[in-house]
Amino acid sequence: MSEPVDHEPSESGRSVPTPDESSTDRTLLRTEYARLLSAEGYGDVRVLSHEAAERVFTERRRELLRVLDEFDVSSQRELARLVDRDPGAVQRDLQTLIEFDLVSLADDGRANRPVLAYDTVVVEPLVAPDTVVPEASFTPDDEP
Q: How far apart are CA 79 and CA 86, in angstroms?
């Protein structure tokens, strides 16, 4: 059974097949990169597909991630104050970051405190050697 592919136009205008972000090969590659980076001291690592990164990493969401990395915020409202944005807009952006498993909410009694879900977040390589995942001892279900 073949993996799903999309077709992107090349510079010559011809359609070039590209594996779907959920293909087994790409999922295993992201899982292996996370494992390797974690073993090198990067802590808990999340490797996003480049398609997911395009959807999630707006300038304002990247700002939220940077602030959460730098400050121990006590609530979503405090985060909104730190970035000087409307609390509702921050909440919507946080929801997207939660859906992509980049942020979680810690229940601190009266407030849900946004925290980073991973120590390190990276985007999968667009080009990589085939030898990165020689013989995987894991399954796509193991992906962080």
A: 10
Question: Please, how many CA atoms are within 13 Å of residue 27, restricted to the half-sphere of its CB?
Answer: 13
Residue 13 backbone dihedrals phi, psi, to 5 degrees: 95, -10
d(CA 20, CA 53): 14
Contact 92, 56 (CB under 8 A): no
CA-based torsion, 142, 119, 19, 137: positive or negative = negative
Tens digits of residue pLDDT in 16-35: 455 788 888 889 889 999 99
Residue 97: what residue type? L
Asked whether residue 5 is assigned to any structural domain, the reply reads no
Residues 34-73: tens digit of each pLDDT: 999 999 999 999 999 999 999 999 999 999 999 999 999 9
CATH code of the domain in which 116 resides = 1.10.10.10
User: Considering the domain boundaries, does residue 1 fall inside one?
Assistant: no
Q: Are β-strands 111-116 and 15-19 bridged in parallel, bridged antiparallel, or unpaired?
A: unpaired
Q: How many domains does the chain have?
A: 1
